[in-house]
Amino acid sequence: MAGLSLDVLRAGKKYRLINFGERHDFEIENVLADGDFEVKDLDTLERYNLKELISYGKGNDFLLEEL
Q1: Is residue 1 in a domain?
Q2: Domain range holding 26?
Q3: How many whole angstroms separate alpha carbon 32 and alpha carbon 62?
Q4: From residue 49, how far is each of 1, 13, 39, 52 by CA, in Å?
Q5: What pLDDT shows up at residue 59?
C-alpha cells in the first residue's frame, strides 16, 4: 500500500509514520506556515514538530498513513 504525502496532512487527524524502523503515532495539532506541523505523540503525549522525525531523511521503509 502506498503511503500518504506530507501535502495531504490535516489538523485534527491522526497518522502513523514509520521511518528507519521506528513507529510514531501522532495527531496534527497545528499547520505551520513553513510547511511543518505541530504534532502530539499519541503514546507519550509529547509535542514536537513533524520535521524533527524526518530530519535525518526518509528510509527505505518510510510510510505515512492515516489511523
Answers
A1: no
A2: 6-66
A3: 22
A4: 26, 15, 6, 6
A5: 87
Contacts of 42 (CB under 8 A, 6+ apart): 14, 25, 26, 27
Task: Report the distance separating Cα 55 and Cα 19, nearest Å.
Answer: 11
pLDDT for the residue numbered 22:
92
Query: Would the pTM of this model clear 0.70, i.e. be above it?
Result: yes
Domain count, the chain: 1
Distance from C-alpha of 59 to C-alpha of 42, rounded to nearest angstrom: 22
> What is the percent of the chain where pLDDT is above 70?
97
Residue type, 5: S
